[in-house]
Every structure is written in structure tokens, then in C-alpha cells.
Amino acid sequence: MNQETSYAAVVLAADRTTNDAVASKAGVTCKAFAPVGGTPMIIRVLDALAATHMSQPTLLCGPPKALLPQCPELVRRIESGQVAWIANEPSPSRSAEKGLARVDEQTRVLLTTADHALLTPEIVRYFLRASSAADCDVTVGVIDHEIIKAAFPNRKKTVIRLRDGDFCGCNLYTFNHQGRELISFWRRAEDQRKQPWRLIARVLGWRAVLSYLFGYLTLTQALKNISARTGVRIQAIRLPFAEAGIDVDKADDLLLVESHLNKQ
Q1: Is residue 2 part of a domain?
Q2: More confident residue, 53 or 101
Q3: Cα dist from 112 to 99, 123, 161, 164, 166, whole Å
Q4: Which of 164, 167, 166, 175 is nearest to 244 (CA)?
Q5: Residue 179 counted as domain residue
Q6: What total number of domains does the chain contain?
Q7: Which residues contact 126 (CB under 8 A, 6 or more apart)?
Q8: Interval 93-116: pLDDT, tens
Q9: What is the per-residue pLDDT for 1?
Q10: Residue 189: phi, psi to the nearest 5?
Q11: What range defines the domain where residue 99 resides?
């Protein structure tokens, strides 16, 4: 990572729904507390971020305050000042907006999630080095679907199919001050993440949607079109780590990540 570029980390850690399947499977009150390799997922993420020497304490958005005592190590880090906690909002995009608003405008922000159970310092450093070198306002971590399939053949992922490849998200983003304007676009993406062509149609128009459907649209073209419409310069950072594309969305994912760690 470029040592002159300063980043603060924001982690989204609240459940999207009540009675989360992962939390129920693990017997915990919040998905972020589900143990992986004997360590709560949220602590694994915080450790990966701490190893990259962020410019200030990690800002944690959620879980609800009443649930925090269920993870004593997290409470210890909050009380020691290693982690700053704020209450979450009803959706990830609104939580992200709230978290970014707490960070000084001149500081770039790394945004990730607490269910990124296989996140490592190596992945974070690679992403931040590439993001620091990019001439843009926002970077988005992506991974070739083939990389995930090779390492995790039974893991189903939402796939964006484009002319230059099939891509999956990695729940890794950076924002500069101008880039924070993109959060409103994210709100729309939350509603359309399972049907990406609808989002493309709303934001980019039907010519782009036809290009997407017929396989003419590339990743660079898609992001350039979004940048033109939003005024925010966006660049994808393609990550070579299969683990970067794995988050714990379903109960079966706990078994998947445990099995992967046991093989290492």
C-alpha cells in the first residue's frame, strides 16, 4: 500500500433480517458473532484490518448495542478504543452512509462487512495498494467467477456476466470525498442485486441493458457509464484471491469456510 495514502476502515456488522439463518445455525444472537475457526467472524475481520495499520480506530456500524455483551472480545476492543461503535441503520447502504459521515472528508475510507470471514491482511493490503494507485473516486473489489469456482466449486454466487468475463463482488470498497456521493446509487443496487439488468436499465438506459443481455458490455464500459451518469469516477480492482469473494450469507457457508480453513 502507498504509505502516503491514509485510510480509515468502516465495517458493517448488523444482520439484514431478524432470525438470521447463520446466527441460528451458530447459536449466537448476531451473525457477526458466529465463530469461524474458533473466533467470531467480526473479530477475524477486525484482526485483518488492524494488521494493515489504519489511520484511526475501525468504525463498526452495528450490531445493536444490546447484543454487544454476547461478544466479550468485541466489548473489550470498544472499551479500549481500538474500535469505535455506532448504531446501525435499516439497510447496509444507509449504515454505510452514516459510517462514512463520521470520517473526516479528507480521509479515504475502506468499507467492508463483518461476515467477510476469510478476509486476510494480504487481501486488504493488495486491495488498498491497487486502490491507492487508481486515479478515481471509488474502487470496487471484484473477482473472476472462475477463481471462486476453482477453489469453492459448490458455492453459488451472484454473477455479473459481461463480455470480458463473469464477475462477483468482494464486499470491499474505497471512497474518497467525491466518491461518497455514490452511496445513493448503492441504495438502488440493494433492491436490484439479484436482477442486475434492471439496475443497468434505470441508471444507464436500454442501450446498455441490451449490450449487457447480448454480452457486448465490458466491465470497464459498465463502470465508465455509471461514472458518466453519477459524476463519480469508479474503477474495479480485480483480486486474485478466491477467499476475497466469500462472505457468510447462508448457514451452509459456515461449514464451507471452516472446511477451507482446516485445509490450510
Answers
A1: no
A2: 101
A3: 11, 12, 23, 26, 22
A4: 167
A5: yes
A6: 1
A7: 239, 240, 241
A8: 889 999 999 999 999 999 999 999
A9: 46
A10: -65, -35
A11: 7-263
Condensed to tens digits (0 to 9), the pLDDT of residues 77-86 reads: 999 999 999 9
Q: What is the mean pLDDT of the chain?
A: 89
Question: What pLDDT digit, counting tens, does each position of 31-44 carry?
Answer: 999 999 999 999 99
C-alpha closest to that of 238 among 157, 160, 168, 149: 168
Give the dihedral of Cα atoms 19, 89, 228, 237; nearest 10 deg.
-60
Residue 3 grid coordinates: 504509505
Residue 150 located in a structural domain? yes
Which range is least confidently modeled, 139-148, 149-158, 218-227?
Answer: 218-227
DSSP of the chain: --TT--EEEEEE-S-SSSS-HHHHHHT-SSGGG-EETTEEHHHHHHHHHHTT--SSPEEEE-S-GGGGGG-HHHHHHHHHTSEEEE---SSHHHHHHHHHHTS-TTSEEEEEETT-TT--HHHHHHHHHHHHHS-SSEEEEEEEHHHHHHH-TT-----EEETTEEEEEEEEEEE-TGGGGGHHHHHHHHHHTT-HHHHHHHHH-HHHHHHHHTT---HHHHHHHHHHHHS--EEEEE---GGGG----SHHHHHHHHHHHHH-
CATH no. for residue 35?
3.90.550.10
* 1 within domain boundaries: no
pTM for this predicted structure: 0.90
- Which residue type occupies 193? R
* Torsion sign across C-alpha atoms 99, 187, 167, 158: positive
Find the mean pLDDT for residues 142-159.
93
